[in-house]
Amino acid sequence: MGKPREKEPTIDEKYSLPKLQEVTCPHCKKGIIKVNRTLHTLPDKEEILIMLLECESCKFSRSDVIPLSSAFQPGIYTIHVTGGDLTAKIFRSPTGVILLPEADFEIEPGRSAEYLITNIEGILNRMIQWSKFMLKDFKEQENQYQKIQKTLEILTRCRNGTMDFTIILVDKEGGSYIIPSNESLLSFEAIRFEEE
Ligand SMILES: [Zn+2]
User: Fold this and answer.
1) Between 9 and 144, residue with greater pLDDT
2) 3-state DSSP call for residue 140?
3) Is the pLDDT higher at 106 or at 117?
4) Phi, psi of 103 (to 5 degrees)
5) Which are the contacts of 168, defined by CB distance < 8 A and separation ≥ 6?
6) How far is the CA of 144 from the centre of ligand 1 (A)?
7) CA of 63 to the centre of ligand 1 (A)
8) CA 79 to ligand 1 center in whole angstroms
9) Which among 82, 86, 31 is positioned nearest to 53, based on CA atoms?
10) What is the pTM of this model?
11) What is the rounded CA–CA span in Å between residue 62 and residue 109?
12) Which of 45, 99, 149, 174 is 20–30 Å from 109 (CA)?
């Protein structure tokens, strides 16, 4: 099918970068983070993605370089969060599922899921917010209510740094990535997922 490719695709044709979700500045909590992404091929042919994040309001900025050879592959990322360090960054593609086994909590991408860029703290805040919504919904069902309350307690301890925990990011399609503050706490297992 299709015509044979006549020339090598450029790096921009090769990778289609997913749409970004608006992210509030983690620093001033007011501004919106502007994300600038550039694909680049190094002289040794390694392909990298340079991300520049900048807050329009407080001028907070930082940049990241992500090697594309090892990033965004289908598989399972596992990061151990210890000593209350919630700064590891999470890039979740629309096909990524985030799990926090200690709290038995899972964030499935919604139907209109977009690329999510946040850090561990941002993930915990989301989980806590959703648990609080669920508490309201299950007010009449005592068993469920107690279960969610327990989850909420664990999540709060994780966020306050009084409990170590694990974040697992499963992406069957590839496109997700975790940038740890300490490499030794992150592991990656590439998996060939069977077609169902
Ligand atoms: Zn800011």
Assistant:
1) 144
2) coil
3) 106
4) -105, 5
5) 76, 77, 78, 79, 98, 99, 100, 101
6) 38
7) 15
8) 27
9) 31
10) 0.68
11) 27
12) 149
